[in-house]
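Q: Can I see a sequence and its folded structure?
A: Here is a first one.
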Amino acid sequence: MYDLRRNHDDLWKFLIKEMFESFIRYFIPELVGLIDFGQVPEFGNVELPTLQVEKSPKGNLRADYVVKVAQKDGQKRSIIIHIEVQATRDVRFHERMYKSHYRLYDRHNHPIEAIAIFVTQDYPKGPYYFVVESFTARVLYEYRTYHVHSQNPEELLKSDNPFALAVLACIRSNIRNLKQRYAYKKALYHLLSERGYSKVEKECLYWFIFLLLRLPNKEENHLKASLQKANHMIRLSKYDWDYITEYLSFQSGMTIKELMELQRKKLVEKDETIEVQDQQLKKKDEKLEEKDQKLKEKDETIEVQDQQLKEKDEKLEVKDQKLKEKDETIEVQGQQLKEQELVLKQNILLFYQEPMLMSIEEIAKHVKRDIAYVQTVIDEFEDKKKD
C-alpha cells in the first residue's frame, strides 16, 4: 500500500500549491480579505539556519512548507504562511513550530501565520502553544491547528470547498479491507464528478485520492471501467490513468517528486521518440518529393510526346485530306474515262452500222487504234489508283 508516513507531506503540498486560494478559504479564512490572490505566491521548502546568537547543537531547521503572499491595498509587507502537515507523533513538535516562527521572522521581518494539519489519529495532544520563560521574562507562541480525524463527515459533505473532499479522503485513508477501500474510493470519485469544482481542482483531487487510497491493479482497472460506465471518470490533461497505474501500482513509497521525475524522463523519452519519428517523416517526405519530381519530369516527357503525337496526327490528317482529294480527282477521271469509253463504243457501233462508208480494212484499223487507246487510258487509271 501507499506509504502514508512518507508521502502525506508531498500530497498535501501538491494540493496546496495548485489550489492555494481554496486552501486559505478553508483553513485560514481570516486571511482571505488581506491576501492579493492576483499576485502569484512564492512556494517552497525553506531551510532555516540557526541564528548566529543561537548555540543550538541541532543546527539548521527545515520548515515543511512556506508560502509568501502579497497583501491587498498596496501594502509593502508580505504575509508569510508557515504550513506543517504532521503524520506522526512528535513530542517536540510545539518547540519546532516556535523555532520555525522566530527564524522565519528573523529572515523576512514580515507577519507570519502558522498552521499545523494533523492527518493521522496519532497526532500530538494539546495545548498547541509553546512557552519560553525565565525569571521575569515570558514568551508565549500559539498557532492554528486542524485535526483531520476530528472533523464531522456530514459537515464536510455540506462544504463546497474542494479541500473538504480531500479531508474526507484522509479520514478513511487507513482502511485495510480491500472491498471497503474500493467502495469508499468509488464514492469519493462520484462526489468529485458531481461537484462544481474547476477542472484544475477536479484533476488535483483525482490525483490526491488515487495516491492516498491505493488499490491493486485489478481493482484500479475495474474501478476505472465502472467510473467510465457511470460517466464519472475525470478527464485528465496532466496525468492519465495508464501513466499513473504503470508507475505506481505495487510501488510502495513513491513520492510525488519521484513520480514527477519519472514523468519528466518519460516526456524526454517521448520527445526523443517524436524527434526520431519526425526525422523519419522528413526522410520519407524527401523521398516522396523526389518521387514527385520524377513523376513531374515523366509527366512533362509524356506531355512532349503527346504534343509530338498531336503534330504527327495533324500531319497525317493533312495527308489524309490530300489523299482524299486525290481519290476524288481519280474518281472524276475514272468517270471521264467511262464517258470516253462509251463514246468509243458508240463510234464502233456506227462503223458497223454504216459499212459502206469505209472499207473493212479501215474499220479494223480504227477499231484497233481505239482499243489500244482505251487500253492505254485504263492502264493509266489503274496506275493512278495504285499510287
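Q: Show me another, different protein.
A: A second, unrelated one:
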Amino acid sequence: MSGNVRVERGWILVDGARQDDGTIRLGTGGEMRFSPFEAISQRADARIAWGDILKASVQRLAFWRR
C-alpha cells in the first residue's frame, strides 16, 4: 500500500488534490475519496494498488451483509 493511500470502510482515501488539468497531485494534504469502481479508472493517476481496490471491495461487501 502506498503512503498516500488508505482504505477505510470501503472507501479508498488518497492524500492529494486534483489539479486544473485533471491530474492528481499526491501529498498535498488534501483528501480525495474513491469508491472501488472509481478507483479502477483513477488507478494510474492516484497510484492505487489492486490490493487496495480489492480490500475496499471486500469491506463494502461485509458492510452490506450486516
